[in-house]
């Protein structure tokens, strides 16, 4: 049965830049050991003749065709804008830089 040590958990925590308390290291060591055991069990059951899949059911493209349709003209869109300038929406400056 796989076993992960407290030192290995501490090493992983350092790599992930996690500051763990000693009690957390002991607790996580047990949890990671259970996860490793579960993955090992799945690996034992997995058959070589079954191809890997990302979904249980086949996926199909659900997007509609990209077809041009009538839409608002620039003038109609800008007519509803609080402010417009040179055929574009005018918005408040946010970066504080002058042009």
From TrEMBL:
UniProt key word Transmembrane helix: no
EC number in record: 6.3.5.-
InterPro entries assigned: Asp/Glu-ADT_sf_sub_c, GatC
Positions of the UniProt region annotated as Disordered: 66-99
Keywords: ATP-binding, Ligase, Nucleotide-binding, Protein biosynthesis, Transferase
Catalytic function, reaction form: L-aspartyl-tRNA(Asn) + L-glutamine + ATP + H2O = L-asparaginyl-tRNA(Asn) + L-glutamate + ADP + phosphate + 2 H(+); L-glutamyl-tRNA(Gln) + L-glutamine + ATP + H2O = L-glutaminyl-tRNA(Gln) + L-glutamate + ADP + phosphate + H(+)
Keyword set includes Oxidoreductase: no
GO terms, biological process: glutaminyl-tRNAGln biosynthesis via transamidation; regulation of translational fidelity; translation
GO molecular function list: ATP binding; glutaminyl-tRNA synthase (glutamine-hydrolyzing) activity; transferase activity
Pfam families attached to this UniProt entry: GatC
Compositionally biased residues, Low complexity: 70-82
PANTHER family per the UniProt record, alphabetical: GLUTAMYL-TRNA(GLN) AMIDOTRANSFERASE SUBUNIT C, MITOCHONDRIAL (PTHR15004:SF0)
Oligomeric and partner information: Heterotrimer of A, B and C subunits.
Family as reported in the entry's similarity comment: Belongs to the GatC family.
Role, per record: Allows the formation of correctly charged Asn-tRNA(Asn) or Gln-tRNA(Gln) through the transamidation of misacylated Asp-tRNA(Asn) or Glu-tRNA(Gln) in organisms which lack either or both of asparaginyl-tRNA or glutaminyl-tRNA synthetases. The reaction takes place in the presence of glutamine and ATP through an activated phospho-Asp-tRNA(Asn) or phospho-Glu-tRNA(Gln).
Name of the protein described by the UniProt record: Aspartyl/glutamyl-tRNA(Asn/Gln) amidotransferase subunit C
Source organism per UniProt: Phytoactinopolyspora halotolerans
